[in-house]
């Protein structure tokens, strides 16, 4: 009986922490009013795309970048030692479009498998002060992508975080799981950024000024870490006031998702491995939410099975899930992912289990990075 009482009080504390996270932290994003960007700013921009063995993707997705409705932009295509026809594809596009600058980076043993080295050379070769980043397999959802992202820069804001979605595949559980994980991550980094506590961004859709890059000494603070050209840069460079978010639908990019659990697991292993290099306060805030999330479900099942107060336990579970749905309804409307809502509890449990397996696997063996 004493054990059950302790477990119940502990469960109440876990629910309270979860509710605080959802309402106080994630509510910053869920309840945020999306404003239509009407900025007249047309500052020249360099769009940076680093590609390694991406010839086919460039043929498919680069035209949507070149068709952007923006008066003055450059596209810097960085070939990172590709073994396919990536460089030839880049040169073909460049021969017919003066907006394109090709930077061919030869492999260097010291920086093998490290995307930060070619990115640094591409940034140095860019001619404009605003840098907008995406991947070779990404496609802006509208011709106003550049315009929308640039509108968030100001004298105070030198980093802009955007949303990089994954395309939908019908009748695919894996696709819903990938998009749910992307949604959860976006809600988190957008919310913390709104609080002046930005800890990451995604390279599929983010921007910063060249001045910010050099003031932060580029990637030097984590050049020895092969991953993290996006999230670790934001983690080290963001302040309480210099980071903005852009969540208008015209600012989104979309990428084809992985189609096998193995490929997705390898991708997530690379992404998750960088979290251990975040600032201590970021690691604490993220770990506390994840741990209480795990405990919420473990204690829910335990107390439902053996508690002498099942109705009270059910009430606490329903309360927490209701708050979660409230936050996710507002968030999915903004990010266009409403179809994952009906599977929310199941997707969450599966994702928690999957992430735990990734953490354990990364401890046992180091993941490969870049391509």
TrEMBL record:
- Provide this UniProt record's keywords sorted from A to Z: Glycosyltransferase, Membrane, Transferase, Transmembrane, Transmembrane helix
Residue ranges of the TM segments: 6-24, 284-306, 312-329, 341-364
InterPro entries annotated for this entry?
Glyco_trans_2-like, Nucleotide-diphossugar_trans
- Catalytic class of the enzyme: transferase
Q: List the signal peptide residues.
A: none
One GO MF annotation is: glycosyltransferase activity
One family name in Pfam for this protein:
Glycos_transf_2
Q: Which EC number(s) does UniProt give?
A: 2.4.-.-
The superkingdom listed in its UniProt entry is Bacteria
Q: Which residues form the Glycosyltransferase 2-like domain?
A: 46-185
Similarity field = Belongs to the glycosyltransferase 2 family.
Protein name, per record = Glycosyltransferase
Species of origin = Hyunsoonleella rubra
